[in-house]
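Researcher: I'd like a candidate sequence for this fold, 541 residues long. If you have to choose between options at a position, lean toward the conservative one.
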C-alpha cells in the first residue's frame, strides 16, 4: 500500500524517464513501452496502487490511449500539474484520470474544459464549438457523467451568437437520425432546451422523406422524450405537421400507437382529457366486519361511483372476508341506487360474472334476479371486450411492459369514436406504480385545435377481467378493486386482478400492504397457453 502522501505533489519532473526509477511499464499499442515509477503513480492512483502492491504487477496495458495522453498523464502524476493537455489529447487524458481514479486529475480535466468553454467567443470556429460538444457526449457515454454536457448547454444558450450556432450543431448531430446514438439524442434534447421545435423539424425531415410504414427506434425515442406541449406553444405549425404525419401512419402500422402511449404516460399532453382507472378501492375492507357494515362504509365512500363498484365490493367481502348477510341487503342496495341515480347493471355482465361458493353465489343470484338492479335479458347490452391476452403473455404484457391499444364502444352512444387504453408498467418492482387510464383517441391528434374540447368528453366506463379456458368459462372477476400486481417474497411469481389471499389477510392484499403471493382464482392460468384473459368494459349512463 502506498504511503499516506497528499497529492497532487511535485515529485520532480527530472525523475521522469530515469532508468533507476522506471520499475512500472506502460504497454502501448504502438511503439516502445513507457517506463515510470510505481510509487509515484501509486500515490496518485489507487487503481495502480492495487495493481502493483496487491497483484504484484509490473506492467499496465494502456493500448486504448494515445502515447501523447500517457505521457501527459505520467507527467501530471510526477509534477502535480496538468500542463501538457490540449484539444488533441484531452479525451484520452480525461478518460485515463477516470479509469485510474486520479481524483485530483479528474477535477483538473473539468477545469480545463470549463476554461476552454470560457475562451469560446464569436471569433471561435464551428470546429472549436463542436470539439466541446463532442467531448461532452463522449464523457456522458463513456464515463456516465453529465457535468460536461451541462456546461456546454449553458454556454451555447448564453448568448445570441451561440444560439445561432446551436441550430447548426443540432442539425449536424442529427444529420443521420437513424444511426445517431442515444447519447447524441440526449445531448441534442439538453442543448435545444425549450426550443424543441428544432428537434421536431429535424425529425420530420427524417420521417417525411423516407417511405416507411413504421417509425424507427430513434424516432420513437425522440418523440417520447420531447415536450410536445412546448413545441405547440412555440411552433404550432411544426406541431401540426408532426401530428398530421402520425395520424396518417395509424392505418399503416398499428404498433406505432405505442409511441402515442409513451407520450401520454408522461402526461406531457396536459390538454388531453383522461380518466384514471381506479385499481385499489378495498382500503376499508376488514375481516372483522359483517356485510352490512361493509355496505355502510362503501355507501359513504366518494370513490364508489356506480352500482358495478358496489356490487364487486360486496362480492369480494363475501368471497374473501367470509361475511354473512341478510336478505334485506338487496333493499338497501336498491335504495342507494335510487338516491345516487345510478344505472342498472348490464345483464351480460351479471350473466358472465364469476359465482363462487355458497354465500357469494346466493348474493349473486339475489342481485341477478332483481329487475330494479339488473337490465332484463331482452334489453340492449353495451358490454364489449376491448382486448384479450393468452395466459402465456398476460402477466408479461400487463405488468412489465408499456401496453396500450385502441378500442371502440359499438353498442353505445359513443359508437364510431375511438378510445385509447393505456397500462403503465410497474417500476422497480413497486406494485403501486402500476396504473391504468384511458383517453379519447381523436384528442391525441386534435387536442390543440380551439373549439374541439367538447368533442372529447370521455364516457364513464367500468372495467373488469374475464377469464376463460378452452370451452370452459370461468367468468368475470374484479380488477378495479384489487388491480395492484402482487408477488411472492422472491418476486418470481406475479399475479394481477382478483386475488384470493393465502395466507395473507385478504384486505392487506387488496390494499397492497403485503407482498406474499396470493393464490389467484386459478393460480396456473397465467402459465397456460389455452387460457384467455379478456379485458371488458361497460359504458355507464
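Model: Candidate sequence:
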Amino acid at each position: 500500500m502506498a504511503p499516506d502522501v497528499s497529492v497532487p505533489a511535485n515529485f520532480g519532473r527530472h525523475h521522469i524517464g530515469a532508468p533507476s526509477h522506471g520499475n512500472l511499464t506502460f504497454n502501448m499499442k504502438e511503439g516502445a513501452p513507457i517506463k515510470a515509477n510505481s510509487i509515484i503513480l501509486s500515490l496518485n492512483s489507487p487503481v495502480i496502487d492495487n495493481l502493483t502492491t496487491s497483484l504484484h504487477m509490473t506492467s499496465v496495458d494502456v493500448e486504448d490511449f494515445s502515447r501523447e495522453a500517457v505521457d501527459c498523464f505520467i507527467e501530471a502524476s510526477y509534477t502535480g500539474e496538468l500542463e501538457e493537455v490540449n484539444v488533441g489529447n484531452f479525451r484520452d487524458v480525461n478518460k485515463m484520470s477516470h479509469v485510474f481514479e486520479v481524483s485530483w486529475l479528474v477535477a483538473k480535466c473539468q477545469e480545463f474544459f470549463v476554461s476552454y468553454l470560457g475562451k469560446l467567443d464569436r471569433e471561435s470556429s464551428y470546429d472549436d464549438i463542436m470539439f466541446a460538444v463532442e467531448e461532452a457526449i463522449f464523457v456522458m457515454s463513456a464515463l456516465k457523467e453529465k457535468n460536461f454536457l451541462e456546461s456546454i448547454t449553458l454556454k451555447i444558450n448564453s448568448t445570441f451568437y451561440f444560439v445561432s450556432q446551436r441550430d447548426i450543431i443540432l442539425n449536424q448531430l442529427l444529420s443521420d437520425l437513424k444511426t445517431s446514438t442515444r447519447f447524441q439524442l440526449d445531448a441534442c434534447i439538453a442543448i435545444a432546451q425549450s426550443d424543441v421545435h428544432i428537434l421536431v423539424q429535424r425529425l420530420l425531415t427524417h420521417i417525411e422523406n423516407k417511405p416507411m410504414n413504421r417509425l424507427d427506434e430513434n424516432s420513437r425515442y425522440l418523440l417520447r422524450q420531447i415536450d410536445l406541449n412546448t413545441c405547440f406553444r412555440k411552433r404550432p405549425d411544426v406541431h401540426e405537421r408532426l401530428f398530421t404525419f402520425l395520424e396518417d401512419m395509424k392505418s399503416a402500422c398499428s404498433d406505432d400507437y405505442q409511441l402515442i402511449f409513451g407520450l401520454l404516460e408522461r402526461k406531457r399532453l396536459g390538454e388531453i382529457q383522461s380518466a384514471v382507472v381506479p385499481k385499489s378501492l378495498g382500503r376499508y375492507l376488514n375481516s372483522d366486519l359483517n356485510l352490512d357494515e361493509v355496505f355502510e362504509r362503501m355507501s359513504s365512500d366518494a370513490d364508489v361511483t356506480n352500482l358495478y363498484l358496489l356490487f364487486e365490493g360486496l362480492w369480494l367481502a363475501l368471497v374473501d372476508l367470509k361475511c354473512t348477510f341478510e336478505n334485506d341487503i338487496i333493499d338497501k342496495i336498491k335504495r342507494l341506487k335510487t338516491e345516487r341515480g345510478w344505472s342498472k347493471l348490464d345483464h351480460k355482465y351479471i350473466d358472465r360474472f364469476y359465482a363462487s361458493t355458497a354465500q357469494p353465489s346466493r348474493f349473486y343470484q339475489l342481485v341477478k334476479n332483481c329487475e330494479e338492479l339488473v337490465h332484463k335479458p331482452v334489453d340492449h347490452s353495451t358490454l364489449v371486450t376491448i382486448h384479450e391476452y393468452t395466459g402465456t403473455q398476460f402477466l408479461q404484457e400487463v405488468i412489465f411492459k408499456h401496453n396500450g391499444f385502441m378500442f371502440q364502444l359499438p353498442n353505445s352512444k359513443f359508437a364510431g369514436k375511438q378510445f385509447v387504453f393505456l397500462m403503465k408498467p410497474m417500476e422497480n418492482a413497486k406494485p403501486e406504480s402500476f396504473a391504468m387510464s384511458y383517453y379519447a383517441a381523436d384528442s391525441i391528434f386534435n387536442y390543440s385545435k380551439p373549439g374541439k374540447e367538447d368533442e372529447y368528453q370521455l364516457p364513464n366506463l367500468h372495467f373488469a377481467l374475464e377469464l376463460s379456458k378452452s370451452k370452459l368459462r370461468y367468468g368475470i372477476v374484479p380488477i378495479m378493486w384489487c388491480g395492484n400486481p402482487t408477488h411472492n417474497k422472491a418476486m418470481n411469481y406475479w399475479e394481477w386482478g382478483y386475488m384470493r389471499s393465502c395466507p395473507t389477510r385478504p384486505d392487506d392484499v387488496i390494499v397492497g400492504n403485503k407482498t406474499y403471493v396470493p393464490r389467484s382464482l386459478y393460480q396456473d392460468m397465467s402459465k397456460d397457453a389455452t387460457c384467455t384473459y379478456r379485458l371488458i368494459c361497460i359504458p355507464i349512463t
